């Protein structure tokens, strides 16, 4: 059986809060299967997922494929940090468009699973955590080289929220519900370019349309988007990419270049 692997770190307070909820309320218990100095694994008879608590930073876990060669995908349970301190629940796939200051390899995008991100975003938005914003983030940070899809689900944006068991419950229950129902591939999948790090236009598409999203490049990454990077964004999706989604007002001086590049792929170009 190919399990989804939920990944947390003992260094990450939000992850620790979610792990505590999974252990005390969802029946995850040590199973001794993947225990070592690097981490400990847990499982629950009621859920088709395994939990792995690593001792290292989540951003550096580039060898999980060796520990879990039959994994279907990796879902990282993480803190979200923001200077604003606004209570926020986020999710995103990982990758670096240029440099790699926060883990992973430069110019490498991780594999995305659009159906999982879309289903989780809709579920956690519907579940509601009072006082929290819910939104996707643009693709950023590591790990980037895992062969199986990666999704980060994050609780933020400060220590107060990282220890919030109510928000952790909403996130974990939403995720487990999605996994229990099965992940349906999206018939329409886009890679998205432009806009801010918190792309409200793309978030709306996920909630209100049939479209799923793989990699998302914000306006801060536009200089790094060339033919090779766009091709990698398209290829690194576990579901076939059918669209290039452009935030037409969020492309700045790169608008003409990016638009022509998108049109040259032969994929449908959707401007929002």
UniProtKB/TrEMBL annotation:
Record-linked InterPro entries: Deacylase_DtdA_archaea, DtdA
UniProt keywords, alphabetically: Hydrolase, Metal-binding, Zinc
UniProt cofactor note: Binds 2 Zn(2+) ions per subunit.
Gene3D superfamilies per the UniProt record, alphabetical: AF0625-like
GO biological process: D-amino acid catabolic process
EC number: 3.1.1.96
Name the UniProt record assigns to this protein: D-aminoacyl-tRNA deacylase
Family, as annotated: Belongs to the DtdA deacylase family.
PANTHER family registered for this protein in UniProt: D-AMINOACYL-TRNA DEACYLASE
Uppermost EC category: hydrolase
Described purpose of this protein according to its UniProt entry: D-aminoacyl-tRNA deacylase with broad substrate specificity. By recycling D-aminoacyl-tRNA to D-amino acids and free tRNA molecules, this enzyme counteracts the toxicity associated with the formation of D-aminoacyl-tRNA entities in vivo.
Subunit: Monomer.
Cofactor(s), by name: Zn(2+)
GO molecular function terms noted in the UniProt entry: D-aminoacyl-tRNA deacylase activity; Gly-tRNA(Ala) deacylase activity; zinc ion binding
Catalytic activity: a D-aminoacyl-tRNA + H2O = a tRNA + a D-alpha-amino acid + H(+); glycyl-tRNA(Ala) + H2O = tRNA(Ala) + glycine + H(+)
Hydrolase is among the record's keywords: yes
């Amino acid at each position: 059986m190919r399990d989804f692997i939920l990944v947390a770190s003992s260094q990450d307070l939000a992850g620790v809060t979610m792990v505590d909820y999974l252990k005390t309320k969802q029946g995850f218990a040590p199973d001794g299967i993947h225990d070592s100095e690097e981490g400990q694994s847990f499982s629950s008879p009621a859920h088709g997922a395994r939990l792995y608590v690593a001792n290292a930073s989540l951003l550096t876990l580039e060898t999980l494929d060796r520990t879990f060669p039959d994994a279907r995908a990796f879902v990282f349970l993480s803190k979200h940090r923001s200077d604003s301190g606004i209570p926020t629940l986020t999710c995103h796939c990982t990758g670096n468009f240029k440099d790699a200051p926060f883990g992973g390899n430069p110019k490498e995008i991780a594999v995305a699973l659009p159906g999982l991100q879309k289903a989780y975003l809709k579920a956690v938005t519907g579940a509601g955590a009072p006082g929290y914003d819910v939104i996707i983030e643009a693709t950023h940070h590591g790990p980037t080289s895992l062969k199986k899809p990666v999704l980060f689900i994050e609780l933020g944006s400060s220590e107060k929220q990282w220890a919030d068991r109510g928000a952790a419950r909403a996130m974990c229950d939403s995720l487990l519900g999605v996994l229990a129902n099965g992940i349906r591939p999206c018939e329409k999948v886009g890679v998205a370019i432009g806009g801010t790090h918190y792309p409200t236009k793309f978030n709306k598409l996920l909630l209100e349309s049939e479209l799923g999203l793989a990699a998302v490049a914000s306006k801060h990454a536009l200089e790094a988007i060339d033919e090779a990077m766009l091709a990698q964004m398209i290829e690194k999706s576990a579901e076939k990419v059918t669209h290039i989604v452009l935030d037409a007002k969020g492309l700045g001086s790169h608008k003409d270049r990016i638009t022509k590049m998108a049109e040259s792929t032969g994929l449908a170009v959707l401007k929002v």
